[in-house]
Design brief:
eleven-stranded mixed sheet, binds NADP nicotinamide-adenine-dinucleotide phosphate, 15 helices, alpha/beta, six-stranded parallel sheet, 17 strands
Length: 440
């Protein structure tokens, strides 16, 4: 048997503690599968005295994760602290500089500094593995980087944030408002006290940035991602989606188009019959379209200590076996600068909900504005009563009424321009709601 693979692990929180438990539980099998033992040589966290329910009694403690990263007694530095800069970045750079392989679950760090860190890892001839950074326990990085190496990928679309999927699922199932569902998610520990990062779509964007680079061989460019969160989704939208044969999901989508690569995170209407429409609760899912394989869908737990530890240890096992791959599946010098396709150029169907003053000619004027911009309507539904009349009480006839339209394929620019005109015409009571429809 080869010599042991020696690990230094920084971060003993939700994921780090599960990694320690997994390594202890499956040490024998792992040694057999990898052809060498995997041993934990050093750990680092902030509070040495905290009882973490794990056995690290005879492992060296490092108060400074950078010192652990540089320690000559380790071969692999496992970074599970989090954060796009600070100790996580310093320690990962120090590990790579001193010739250690790195395994990390830190999407925020890689979305910001991944291009640079990939080049550094290559220069030093070491691995930078990050399966756990995207969709927790789902092996989507391995799938794109290795299993699909023979495909040209045209689109990756995923439910990449369990908190958002939980909230949207509950809103639909329980007829609850966004605010109430968010409170429930916070009570159950599915959402942070400050939920902006999740519900605003930023967490999904970090993951999407990494998937885009892998799928299309482009440099990571998180700042170019178009991001909309789920905060503006109402029960009226969820009910209308249901009636029209759709479900609402927050998707991260990367797609090759004639004008470049689209990267967008936004609430999306997906046909009820599609596989991704049926992914409920905190689960994640990623659909990948490849030219030879067709459509693949991977589903599983996108978070949680144990599921994420499963991915972390899979990455460690690769290093133990001697599997060495460039971070993005091709040498960094072959990654092309990201060529963005602006969201206004996006082509697709749209759901539009307007709150229209009940005046003669209003509907005809609205339809006229849509036609003026070349938008054809697949359906138009007029509601005399508010969708939640039973809850809020019957509306007086003079109150605005909901008009819901589904368009055929058009461009986002056309939709935005038509809605601006409709708003300026004074027929609508508040800002129009529009949601992209994705054929999946
Ligand atoms: N949780 C998930 O389900 C999940 C899923 C996928 C990816 N991830 C990623 O995995 C990483 C870890 O997440 P987590 O949920 O396990 O976080 P967590 O529970 O907050 O744990 C963070 C750990 O890092 C330690 N730490 C923080 N700053 C440190 C410093 N300056 N020096 C040494 N140790 C430090 C903390 O020490 P103390 O314990 O002493 O405070 C703690 O043990 C993040 O990048 C996250 O995005 C998490």
């Amino acid at each position: 048997m080869q010599p042991s693979l020696r690990l230094g692990l920084a971060g003993l929180g939700t994921v780090g503690a599960s990694v320690v438990r997994l390594l202890n539980k499956h040490s024998k099998d792992l040694a057999v599968r990898c052809g060498r033992p995997i041993v934990l040589r050093g750990v680092s966290a902030r509070d040495r005295t905290r009882d973490r329910g794990i056995d690290i009694g005879n492992v060296n403690w490092f108060q400074d994760p950078v010192k652990l990263a540089m320690d000559p007694g380790i071969d692999v530095f496992v970074e599970l602290m989090g954060g796009s800069s600070g100790p996580a970045e310093d320690a990962v750079r120090a590990a790579l500089e001193t010739g250690k392989h790195v395994v990390t679950a830190n999407k925020a760090l890689l979305a910001r500094h991944g291009n640079d860190l990939a080049r550094l890892a290559e220069r030093k001839g070491v691995s930078l593995n990050f399966e756990a950074a995207v969709a927790g326990g789902i092996p989507v990085i391995k799938t794109l980087r290795e299993a699909l190496a023979g495909n040209s990928v045209s689109r990756v679309a995923g439910i990449l944030n369990g908190t958002c999927n939980y909230i949207l699922t509950r809103m639909e199932a329980e007829d609850m408002s966004f605010g109430d569902c968010l409170k429930e998610a916070q009570r159950l520990g599915y959402a942070e006290a400050d939920p902006t990062f999740d519900v605003g779509g930023f967490d999904a964007a970090h993951k999407l940035a990494l998937l885009t680079s892998l799928a299309f061989g482009s440099e990571i460019d998180v700042d170019s991602i178009y991001i909309e969160g789920i905060e503006r989704i109402t029960l009226a939208d969820i009910e209308a989606a249901d009636e029209l044969g759709y479900r609402l999901k927050l998707l991260g989508i990367a797609e090759r188009t004639e004008s470049g690569i689209e990267q967008r995170v936004h609430p999306t209407m997906v046909p009820k019959a599609s596989a991704i429409a049926r992914i409920d609760g905190v689960l994640n899912a990623v659909a990948i379209d490849g030219d030879f394989v067709g459509r693949l869908m991977l589903v599983g737990p996108g978070a949680g200590g144990d599921a994420t530890a499963s991915s972390v240890v899979g990455d460690i096992a690769d290093i133990a076996r001697g599997t060495a791959l460039a971070m993005m599946g091709r040498p960094s010098e072959h990654l092309e600068p990201y060529r963005p396709a602006g969201v206004r150029a996006h082509k697709g169907g749209y759901y539009v909900r307007l709150s229209v003053f009940d005046r003669p000619g209003a509907l005809a004027a609205i339809a006229g504005r849509m036609a003026e911009k070349g938008i054809s309507l697949e359906s138009i539904v007029q509601r005399r009563r508010a969708p939640h009349a039973a809850v809020v009480g019957t509306q007086a006839p003079a109150e605005p009424q909901s008009i819901i339209m589904i368009t055929y394929e058009t461009t986002e620019a056309a939709v935005r321009e038509a809605l601006d005109l409709i708003r300026n015409d004074g027929h609508v009571a508040d800002a129009p709601q529009f949601i992209r429809i994705e054929a999946l």
